[in-house]
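Quick start: read one record
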Amino acid sequence: MTTSRFRIADEVFRYRWIYLALLIAFAIWGWVDVVPRGMVDRERINEHRTDFTVYTEAGAAFFDGRDPYQVSNPRGWHYLYPPMFAILVAPLHALPPMGQVAVWFVLSVAMLFGCYFELRRILDFALARSLSDPNGSARLVFWICSAAVATALLPAFNCLQRGQVEVFKLYLLMLGFRIALTGTRVSQWVVAGIVFALAGILKLTPLLPVMCLLLYEVCAAWSTRDRKQVWHRPVSLTAGLGAGLLLFALLLPAALTGWNGNLGHLQTWFSKVVTKVVDVRTSDFGEDVRTVRNQSLDNAAYRFGNFLSWQFAGGPDDTLIDHPHDASLRLPMDDPSAGTLIVIGRILALAILFLFVVRAGSKDDALGRGTVFSLACVATLVVCPVARACYYVLFLPAIPYVCGRLVLLGQPRRAAFFALLPIALVWSHYVMVSATGRTGLLGLGATIWFLGSCVLLELRADTQTNSQADVAAPSENRNEERETLVAAA
């Protein structure tokens, strides 16, 4: 793997047989497994195992007078996102369900390759050029990319199989970040902001890494002497983001569905989804948010606390919520005080993230931008109340930056640990979901990985800065003594 000026065309031509084999494998998998999941058999409705028809049904509802947040796909699942995405995929509703799934699968595969190519381009610009040894940097980029791909592999396949949008969201985030990172003109940074806005309108969670990147840019600009020049980037990104949010949240949907209709849909979405982010268990807006497959910190702590109560304190069986049960069922972690502690933990994680961003912003460099942005991507899995296993594709950009930063700080063993831990967490969850999901292993482990990354990177950076200061101090003292002797003479 080379690290100098990565080009997609050269990469594909060089490994054309590998890419051809991958495309054939995806085609077979899509034909045999993914597309049949869109089949609708009213006598065996549980065999309809795709989420994509949720989006197309809601998209059709925007134009035929139905409430898009009340209609459902054949399995009874409802639409939970802002109007824009459903409107974008509404034309696919004219196809039969299996045709809809096939089109989205092809697009998702293309975006999956796009995520990998964007990762390579970003690392070529930021990480490889930070290393002095070209051969060593090539090996490092190869191994950390391999660890990142291995971690994101199962969540990405899960997303493609179920017709979900996480790969699309990740591609928009990585595309926008690559443009923001490598751009040199105001127009490029404005385009990056617009791409970020599209990701944020798809779901709200991408706005967290975008806001962290903007905060980093502001801190970097503030700490730089030539402030007039460096302020162009944060101002342009903010302008593009604002224009994009206005376009995708209001202007485009209103042009297609009417101004008042769009405002009404946004109000419905806000009251049904956004107001539940503090405690999702007050209303099950997310189609069983207490399932073992929801591995946010919120639900992982909830599951782990109930498991400990049953295992060691004689509490009720924590698996009762995984089966049909009475609506009055209450488990120990349903206590309001437990919910309050979980919310406090999420707020503290967010505060640690913002503190890390501010501290990192004092050093304006490409590697710092990538570390901040990618850690904020993982932070969405921690601070948001719903983070299903497929959401963990967001580890893809985070592992290279965190591990590469640790290598540069002289911590190769810790870098190897932080590269292997996400692989173990994700794969154990998919292989033993009934056991690991019950204890919240993936969600709690991801929280430990995120917090450990923030603390370790900050501590090592401070240690390196102090060491450099200690080395510089003797020379400064010698200069002062020399000046004193000269003055005395």
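Residues 468-478, 480-489 have pLDDT under 50 and may be disordered.
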